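#help-structures
NK: newbie question, is this the right format to request a structure? protein is histidine kinase
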Amino acid sequence: MSGFNLFDAEEKSLEQAEDLRRQLDSAPEPVREGIASLVEAYRRSVREQRRLVRVSDRLQAQLASVNQELGKRKAEAEGALEDLKAAQESLVQAEKLASLGALVGGVAHEINTPVGIALSCASHLADSTGSMRKLFEADDISVDDFERFMDTVKDTTSLILSNVERAAELIRSFKQVAVDRTSSERRRFDLATYIRETLFSLGPHLRQAGHSVCLDCPEGVIMDSYPGALSQVLGNFVMNSLVHGFEPGELGTLSIRVERQGTGGVRLIYADDGKGIPEDNLGRIFDPFFTTKRGSGGSGLGLHIVYNLVTGPLGGSVSAESPKEGGTVFTMTMPLSP
């Protein structure tokens, strides 16, 4: 109703025009007809303006309703997006923990061998010591008995020491890698040494698959970065090759080459000589949930995690290509201190 107040002046003008027309009744016919035509035209204009105002008010009401509905839908969409991000983050964290769990399982299996050998040797040494003690108590020790006992002690202690040292090396390597992956802390580390530790912790998976690994990294490259992120990236590269790069029973070679980039950065090239990635998939491999192994152990998050770690905490970039001659190549560039 407030819109019609805008036409008070027009109504007054119409009344004045009607008064003028009546005052001109004695005027010549053409003048009266002209005045009447002008008054009628003005009246039609006012009616049309009123109609337009009503239409405008109706459209504004509809627009307000649409804006309110859009606001509601926007809030719902933003809520759904937040829920999706939270779910995706949970899946990414689950994938990281699953990767760490696989690492734990592999290292635990690997440790079983040296620990088992050391335990067998210790048991054999205990039996030999018990037999020697009985001979000693019976005062029935010959030179040959003593020499055989000493040979047994020498051989078993050597085996115990070597296998315990191997187990300790496995535990040290795994402990550092596991701590780095779970803590996400920044620290200084030697790049070549850390890559070797990461590959060592992945050794059980590589030996089971039968693949060989080549590392070409200059010594003395010190990074002040996030080793856990780097370990996760390398681990995902390796597992991606094992799962997607080769057919069961097929043997291949994985390689890691590191090059200096000026004084403040490095380029890390990871490659395998497997079957490669179809060209149609190359542009999608870093997308979340994209996998060609759906239902066969692939979650589609491995390379997505790689991309987020490289472009996030490591402060670098990553790209992939599949040469015509076969295989897959991932190229990472990252600063020594992001």
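mod (FA): yep, format's fine, and the tokens are attached above. Strands lie at 187-190, 212-216, 222-225, 253-261, 265-272, 317-321, 328-335.
NK: thank you!
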